[in-house]
Every structure is written in C-alpha cells, then in structure tokens.
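Me: I'm a chemist; would you kindly supply a protein sequence with its structure tokens?

Assistant:
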Amino acid sequence: MVGGFQNIFKIPELKRRILLTFALLAVYRVGVNVPTPGIDGAALRSIFDAAKGTLLDVVNMFSGGAMEQLSVFALGIMPYISASIILQLLTVVSPHLERLSKEGEQGRKKITQYTRYGTVVLSVIQGLAISIGLENMTSPGGAAIVIDPGWQFRFMTVLTLTAGTAFIMWLGEQITERGIGNGISLIIFAGIVARMPAAIANTIRLMSTGEMGIFFILLLVIAMVGTVAVIVFVETGQRRISVQYAKRVVGRRMYGGQNTHLPLKINTSGVIPPIFASSVIMFPATLANFIKVDWVQNFAAAMMPGKIAYELTYIAFIFFFCYFYTAVTFNSADVADNMKKQGGYIPGIRPGKRTADYIDRVLNRITLGGAIYVSAVCVLPSILMTKFNVPFYFGGTALLIVVGVAIDTVAQMESHMLTRHYEGFLKKGGGKMKGRR
C-alpha cells in the first residue's frame, strides 16, 4: 500500500487533482472560522456547550463546527442536499423534469441549475429563521446573542449565510469536476474529521477528571474499531449474479462464450441515505430550535438524538432513501436490455423482461439488507453514545460517512493509477479496492 501511495506523485494529473482537492478543502476550513457580523460569539458558544447530545450538536457536526460560532458557512452544505432531494423527488412526478433527466448532459446541467436556485431559496428561508430566532435567544448566563437586533442584522445574516452556502456549493462542484471524488461528501467528511481531535481531547479530559473510566474508554475504542471493520466489510461486499455470453461469429473471429458476473453492491447507495435523512430531519428541527413557541419547542425536544421519535424517523428516512437512491441510479431494464444486445443471459432466466425482474428481485433483497445495516450502524452506536454522554463524533453516522467517503476516495485514486498501468494501493495478488459504484 505504501508503494501505491508513492505512485500517486508519478501521475501529474492525479497529483494535480489531489493538491487541488486539499487546497479547496483548506479554503472551506478557513471560511468555517470567519464569523457572521453582529453576533456575540462567546454567548452563542455557551448555548452549544449546553446542547451537547442534542440535534443542535448534530447540526454543528455536519457544518464542521461553523454553526456554534455562526460563521459564514454556518448553514453548511445541507440546503444544497435538501434542494437535491426535492429535485430528485420531483423528477419522479414531473414529466418536464423526467424528460430533462433523460436528455443526457444538457438535461443534467438544467437540473443542476434548478438545484442551485433551490439551494439559494432554502438558504434564504433558513437564514431568516435563524436570524429571527437568535434575536430572541439568550445564553445560559443571560447575555444576548445578537448585539444589535433588527432588520439590518437580519438582512446581513441572510445575505452572509446564503452567500456562504452558495460558495460551499461551488467548492463542492469544483472538487467533483477537477478534484477527487464526490465534492459534497468530501466537504462533510472534512467537517467531521476536523472536529475529531477536539472530541478526542475532550474525552481525554473527561477521563482525567474521573467522569469516564479507563475501562469504558477501552470499550469505546473496541466498539469504534469493530464498527469500522463492519463498515469496510459491507461497503466492499458484492452480490454477484452469474452471466453467460453466447458465442458469436463475426467475420472470421469468434466472440463471447465466456462466463462473467454482474456485481451488485450490498449497499448500493453508500453514505447517501444517512446524509439525506439527516438533512431532511435537521431542516425543520433546526428552525424549531430558534422559534420560541411551546408546541414547536416540544417538537424540537422530541427530535433529539437518543429519543425514540428521532431514531424511528431517522430509520424510516434511511430505508426510504436506500430504496429511492438505488432505484434512481440503477435501471435494471437498461441493464437487461444491454445484456440481451450483447448476447448475454443469466443461466435459467429468459432474456429481456424476465431478466430485469430477476435483477430487481435480487436488488430489492440486498437493498433491504443494506438498509438494515446502515440503520444499525447509524442508530445503535448513537443511542449508546447518548446514554453515556460520549461526543456524537464517535457515533455510527459520523463513522459511516468518514469510512465510506474514504473508501470511495481511495477507489477513485486507484482507478486513476490502474488506467495508467500503475499498481494500485493493494498488491496484485490481494485484489483491488472496490468502490461503491
């Protein structure tokens, strides 16, 4: 593997992509520390210190720590993700969007443009709600969060947060097109990883003060290592469907006749379901935290990590997005049609519709297993962490995103090396890293 990393610097294009990715992520981390004008930073941080283990803590984690100081990137990438979800759902029911999705590159660009507009609209709504909510909030010590409340502060906050989200959206697109991997996932990855050292330091502090025992810390480390091992095992797992290609004579040459397989990922949707599910839950729940109305506050209190309402809602959305994203990205009818055109068939299954139905049946079964796995990894550790007051960064959702994005990024870099006849990260005899796509 060390030799594989050394080969990175032998490929100018790959080296340039990696350096560009690091540079853009560094820009993102700098922006996280630029505060929005008109906020008492110390008073705002005291609110988040008192909100450990709540949904605000989760929102702060996904924003990379930007929310607790209301930086220009406080909204993070979540409005963009929410807009993407809305557009994908509308594609199923809107003939116009469905037609655009089938028009290739031009249609994709048009849908991306709509997604950007939706991101700006959602950012304005969230920014306005947060600014109004902050004006009505005080720190646990009684200090006002907003120094000079009024429409001037609200306008400045909405403008700043919307511009910050638009800039993050642009950074993510640049990383996707000119860097390595999925830019949106890497931005979330960078935000979580950047806060890991602080979480580890806080855990060490709790251990030194006697609030956590060494035995419990040891169990925590073992649980984390076990969770990472399960994630790696399942994320690289495949269900292989045997495919036989008939022999064909073209001119004087004979083609086909070989046995191969159609690989189906156990978790086809990767880290998308927990990210999408978190985005859907956090959008109304975040606004509820800043609205001082009794029933709204009761809703916000019920939607806290570790509470039964939150966990059941989270699991329901994970299952929905596992099936929805798999259906959007994998078209079994097209796969069966292409297989038929190339003279391929699944032994015992008639080509055409029967093959598509069989692939659908297998895909539905493994998607169910994948949804159960994602739910278990995201929910069970988080419940344990909430009960024992351990920082959320050690929970399953954070680990799944970090490990899953890391696997995808390594697979992207390895594919670049293999296309240029370089050995991958793993030796030839040991196979190669399998990404999610």
